[in-house]
Specification:
Blueprint: H1 7-20, H2 28-31, H3 36-48, H4 67-79, H5 88-99, H6 102-113, E1 119-122, E2 138-142, E3 145-153, E4 163-169, E5 180-186, E6 192-198, E7 204-216, E8 220-221, H7 227-238, H8 245-261, H9 268-296, H10 302-327, H11 330-333, H12 337-347, H13 355-366
Parallel strand pairs: 1-4
Antiparallel strand pairs: 2-3, 3-7, 4-5, 5-8, 6-7
The structure holds flavin-adenine dinucleotide (FAD).
Length: about 375
């Protein structure tokens, strides 16, 4: 594995850093709902540079760049705390490129590329998170449109987004993963109701109720009942940008500065623990690079990505936990940076697949333990 980037890749990293000078510390990475107009403006500025379509093929308006440039882009954006990578330019666009019709590509890709059209992921339900194949939201075909009824929960950013990237059951109730379809649903469609669920970090998740929602059949992406393999492919394309190590690097930098500001750095126990965390952050960096390396070599990186998610999120918790221990419980009520990192670190082991599920992937697929199902 080669740990160094090529000169032109390093030059791109510098270009991204220069761009981010105007967007640093927006904190959209943590609380996008509080700063959505600013985050959207940044995405539009990225769109002007073609960066939201960095790795899309040129035939569909992309820059044809590879995973390394994408990794560097979102790593720097995470380090700047500016934003997380938008779902539209990632999962949605990649799926449209692989499985969308020419009409769908012509209609949906340009506004995604320019940063004007944004999506929320509507997969999870009250009884279906880790076990997504059990979801119940139903889409019945009536002529040229589906009628959708169901309840989704934990939709990040739905309050500000234009569309849902909806996973719904079009097959028989017991069809599990074989009976699911993907569709794009404008959030202002009659029958869609978004209800906020405030979160500890001062932002919000959402519940999305769908009642008699009519979705034109041309908004379905891929074959009816064919969503399962499509979703796996979209995820596979994104593994290198899902958990950028720059976020953890920045946590260590910020918490070191906090320790100094509190005068805690004179305590050798604090210094030793911060040094341990700096080493852990390097482990995170290594896992991120392993994912990238596997993808560059055309391997699916399933095990590397699962291991990366566990280590990345656990180290975030270790950093927040350490600062809690140094500063005492008052850091929780002070509205301070450590308090925000602590709140964030609690959910990161859940969203995007829980640590238990990720460890299951490593055990089964990495170590061959307990069968492969
Ligand atoms: C901040 C945040 C943002 C999110 N954003 C979105 C979003 O935008 N769109 C969306 O659709 N969803 C979103 N989610 C939902 C997220 O995908 C689910 O919360 C997650 O998949 C877990 O599902 P669940 O909450 O139903 O828990 P469950 O699946 O019910 O899990 C409960 C517990 O059982 C354990 N468990 C479950 N299955 C297994 C297993 N096979 N082996 C071992 N242990 C297991 C879990 O690890 C967990 O500890 C978000 C969640 C969070 C926290």
């Amino acid at each position: 594995m080669n740990f160094s980037f090529r000169p032109e890749e390093e030059a791109f990293r510098q270009e991204v850093r220069a761009f981010l000078a105007d967007h640093r510390d927006l904190d959209g990475f943590f609380r996008q709902g509080q700063v959505w107009p600013e985050v959207k403006a940044m995405f539009q500025a990225m769109g002007e540079r073609g960066w939201l379509a960095l790795a899309w093929p040129r035939e569909v308006g992309g820059l044809g760049g590879g995973p390394v440039l994408e990794f560097l882009l979102w790593d720097e954006v995470a380090h700047a705390r500016a934003a997380r990578n938008p779902l539209a330019a990632g999962i949605v666009a990649r799926t449209l490129i692989r499985h969308g019709s020419e009409e769908q590509q012509a209609k949906w890709l340009p506004p995604i590329r320019s940063g004007d059209l944004h999506f929320s992921l509507a997969y999870s339900e009250p009884e279906a998170g880790s076990d997504l194949a059990g979801l119940r939201t139903r889409a019945e075909l009536h002529g040229d449109r589906y009628v959708v009824d169901g309840r989704k929960i934990w939709q990040s950013y739905a309050q500000d987004m234009d569309c849902l990237w909806l996973l719904a059951r079009t097959g028989a109730p017991d069809s599990r993963g074989r009976g699911l379809s993907l569709m794009m649903v404008p959030i202002d469609t009659p029958g869609v109701e978004v209800t906020p669920h405030p979160t500890l970090d001062g932002d919000q998740l959402n519940e999305v109720l769908l009642e008699g929602v009519e979705v034109p059949v041309e908004n379905r992406v891929g074959a009816e009942n064919g969503a399962w393999s499509i979703m796996a492919e979209a995820l596979a394309d994104e593994r290198h940008i899902q958990f950028p190590p720059g976020r953890v690097r920045r946590d260590v930098e910020e918490m070191s500065a906090w320790v100094v500001a509190q005068g805690l750095d004179r305590d050798p126990r604090v210094r030793a623990r911060m040094a341990d965390l700096a080493v852990r952050a390097l482990e995170v960096e290594m896992h991120g690079l392993r994912v990238l390396d596997a993808m560059q070599k055309g391997r699916p990186a399933v095990v590397e990505a699962a291991a990366n998610k566990v280590v990345h999120t656990v180290v975030c918790q270790e950093i927040a936990r350490a600062v809690m221990d140094f500063g005492g419980p008052e850091v929780l009520v002070s509205g301070s940076r450590p308090a925000l990192l602590w709140c964030q670190s609690m959910w990161e082991t859940i969203g995007g697949g829980t640590s238990e599920v990720m460890r299951g992937v490593v055990a089964r697929q990495g170590l061959g333990l307990g069968g492969r199902s």
